[in-house]
Amino acid sequence: MTFILESTSSFNAQPNQSLEINTYKYEKSDFRIIFVDVPGPLCSTTILVPTLSPNDKGLPHTLEHLIFCGSKNYPHRGYLDSLANRCLSTGTNAYTMEDCTGYTLVTAGAEGTINILPIFLDHVIQPSLRPYQFLTEIYHIDGTAKPKGVVFCEMASRENTEPDLLDLHLRMNLFQHKSTYSYECGGLTKDIKNLSNDEIIEYHKKFYDPSNVSVIICGLIDKEKVLKSLEEVPELLCSHKDSSVIDIPAIEYPPLPNVENNLISETVHFPVSDADVGSISYAWRGPALENLKDIIGLDVIFRYLYETSASPLCQRFIERKTPLASDVDFELKGTVDSSLLLIFSGVPYITEGSKDQGDDEEDNVEDSNILDEMSISKDNGNNIIEEDEYNDNLEDLFKPGVFFNKLKEIFKNFAENGFPNEEMIKKTIDRHRIKIYEMLEEDPHEVLTNYIIQDLLRYNFAVHSELHDAKHENATKPIIGTRSQIFDIMKELETYPQEFWKDLVKKYILEPPTIEVLMVPDPELANEQASKEIQDQEDRIKRLGPEKLKHLDEELKKALKDNEINIPQEVLDNMPPIPDVTKIPLFRGEVSIKQFLTSENDEEYNNNNNNMLSSSMKDDELPSPSQLITQYDLSRPFSSLQHVKTDTFFTQVKVYLNTSHIPEELRDYFVLFQEMLFCTPVEIPKEFTKDHQPKLMDYKSVVENTSELCTSNEASIGIGNEIFHASYLSETFVISASSERYKYNELCEWMMMILMFSKFDEERIISTAKNLLSQLTETKREGSDMLSAISTKIIAECNEDRGNTSLLNDLAISVFNQEPFLQKIISLVEEHKTNEIIQNLEEIQKCLLKSMEVIAEEAENNKYSPIYKKKEIIPGFVQLAMPLDYENDPIEEFLTCWDKCYKVYQTSIKEKKYDPMEITMMNHSHNDNDNDNDNDEKMEDPNDDDHHHHQKKINYNYLYKITSTFPFPRKPFNIKSIDEAHQSVIVPIAGLCTSFLIQYVESEILSPIPNEDFYAVTVLAELLTRTEGPLYTSIRGNGYAYDGSICLYLWSGQLTFSLYDSSEPQKATMEFYQIIEEMNTKEGWEKICSDFHIDTAKASVVYKNVSSKSTASGVIYSYLRGALRVIIK
Ligand SMILES: [Zn+2]
């Protein structure tokens, strides 16, 4: 045995689940392999190399790229990723940080990992590092004198963006330009130009000795097999260095200078298309990595300070009539001594110059008067914060120290008073604990790997460790698994007095110097940089001359040829077989669907009296057609429910409400509405209060209650909502929340309170609208966000079907519509027309909550409505997800709660029914009633005695088709709807350094069901797109774009070709067309689509499928997706 078990520990990833961590060390070197027994289908590997940056040339990052180009024993480029795909993975990947480089692999099942690991390690330890690889992968000048290379282009597209500049400048100041943390480990383009291949070879020698390398494997894997497979390749494990000499230094922290006001401030301009908003960020040095008490303590304090909109930082800077920022984010970064980062984004950038321009001035004066008036009228109202005690001048925000002084007040206040009360300490720790459990359930592999990396970094780089396990103080082994104590420490912290918390803020925030970076938006800089690039190229053409350029072009061609993927057939034939898919350990899951039918129909299907069909459908069965036309119970807005049980710690409720009956002019309000829910006052009806008196909860109490009860919560249009864009199912409005299991009933009731009894007020409207507008400005700067916004606009606007709810909603929530709309909202408030906004928000709420019966009834009264025309109602639906051993009947519990709340809600609506405003809004024509009532299907309804329209209730089941939601009716993409003028569009965006492109074709392969093309198209897309596949090689390999891919959107029936971060979109697109043309020839087809490649692509598809169900939430979502679109195995 040449591996020795060095240490063992365990980690409680869930309260009732303990995972074992085992560290093995190679006998003859410091090479380690650490196993974490994470359950589930995936096995993830990280090969970790601690690496430092001595400058901005990007040595660790450029080396990271070259590792994948071939190795001593596997010189063929592409071999590694073909093997990875065949081992049920999507390929290998890597990342570079300031203090380490990680090489990662995730496989479905463990067999693939065992096959790949020795080969992956061969690449890491013995890469070929040939000069031609440097040329294509890192940097070269092409025949037109353009600087190119994959890494060069990657960094060129990133280095001038706001997030990258912000991050780098915070670090440069925090580490005083003297540490690995103060350099750009990815490389700055100006320095990459001066980098040579030899420097990279030297760098590899120094940092990539096996004695510096560790492997972390999370998953259920046969450890003996892994160790044995490595023992067979001792050259990858034995050190090439004299072990008594440590030639890699520790990371030392240079002292911070004494400065005035204890603040080191820097102003950085970034190129961008508008000058509306910037960001302001702060950094401090945090506790050493092993000081978990202080680390968790600070995490808890910041969670209290920034997390919810009721928190002190949000209250002070964001949730205001005049917000000073639209978002705040905190990060405790695991540098060798940790760093604390606090970032305010969406900070309004208003200069004195912009105020002095003519007409504007008057407006501004007027504005401030209106604001004053507003605050006066507000004081007469009930209990809202008086924010005017603050004197914020927006013009000053970007002056050094101005924002900081406001921020410091918050910290000073905390250092003096601590948490508002002991209760709050406990609540915040509780919240912190549950968020960590949630994170561990969502992504145990990444979280646990990162915990272990922190132990390894301390061992390798700390000057000193309180645990005495730093290499540089002569320790011989790291203590692995220190984070297993976090839950115990949290328990301990609950007992600590206020002094402990106050001292933390003094020690880490108030006493040491603070770093401030002010990020100023600068549209001129964008133009300058663009013209400089053109000038530079012209200069290079002159300087190099045609001869030299021709030579460069020839060299490049040789290099590309040298790097081509050309794996000999016998090498391919010798690849191990694709692992047995059936052996992958899958998550457990049970699913059933219930449809709510009227009691008279109910009896046909079951003998239950509780109004639901419990002859449930298992797994992938579809409702049979006879069930589709049965008599639904119309008394609620939804008709069916999916119930999932799986390996989860949490209970989850999602209610999907249809929006097709909502008047078009109200759709503009969706975004405002979704963002306000959970953050707006709620009027709890007397039936639900202790003292039987109705109670108005102010929005801060609503926010606090939500964060106490819900692990997470959301309101949105559709699935995959990013505020101004939904992935799909945008015809529905979704409200969802999750909680610990014992809070489930409370969770249901709270969601109903939010949905049914939320109230809207001016205070919340103005602050939400302003913050949304800031976020919108930031969205407009993102190439990929704008690409989807523009596509949506074209597809939706060219499609004239006003009955296509999904497209109407997509368009309504898009940046193009929301920008003018939000501006209108802000001016309406300023013109004292807030009532109009409130009425519209209330109207949306009311519409969403209409029972199917009311929807039908109203459609009968409005012959122009799409519902009336189609005679079809698409109801909402519900999904509940529970732990496998949940004791009670969650469906019964949910329905009981819903019906109780809904009854109270309906009564409250009826009381208000004769509001004249409302009637104009609804656009009703009450006279239409008479004709429609003489229908045969009338029924007596004894319960409905106060119905004011007519005495007899119609059974709308016979008038309207109630569509089943499982599967959900789709409207696939129709390319013919797009007129010629919109078939090809180019949109210039200043400030972007690279281009983004997308092309759509129709690919309706969900209908008819089953459609056998589904499998073929899926495999084809994967075959073309996979790492080191045809698109990857010809587009990324040539440096035309960072990524080019074919993607199949099943729901909308679209097949797309897209480019991400492209420096040459035209050339990249031509490469794609060439591949397609080549596939049209016999020879080309055999080359691109050989059996080998098809098998590899299939294996890769299998991986993606397993991986999408590798967590509890993945399992829950895949059941829903399956039911909505018909399960495809
Ligand atoms: Zn990279």
From TrEMBL:
Single annotated GO MF: metal ion binding
Protein name, UniProt field: Peptidase M16 N-terminal domain-containing protein
PANTHER family documented for this protein: PEPTIDASE M16 N-TERMINAL DOMAIN-CONTAINING PROTEIN, PRESEQUENCE PROTEASE
Region Disordered: start-end pairs: 921-949
Pfam family, any one: Peptidase_M16
Stretches assigned to the Peptidase M16 N-terminal domain: 54-136
Domain Peptidase M16 C-terminal per the UniProt entry, residue ranges: 195-343
SUPFAM superfamilies: LuxS/MPP-like metallohydrolase
Composition bias type Acidic residues, residue spans: 930-944
Organism: Anaeromyces robustus
Gene3D superfamilies: Metalloenzyme, LuxS/M16 peptidase-like (3.30.830.10)
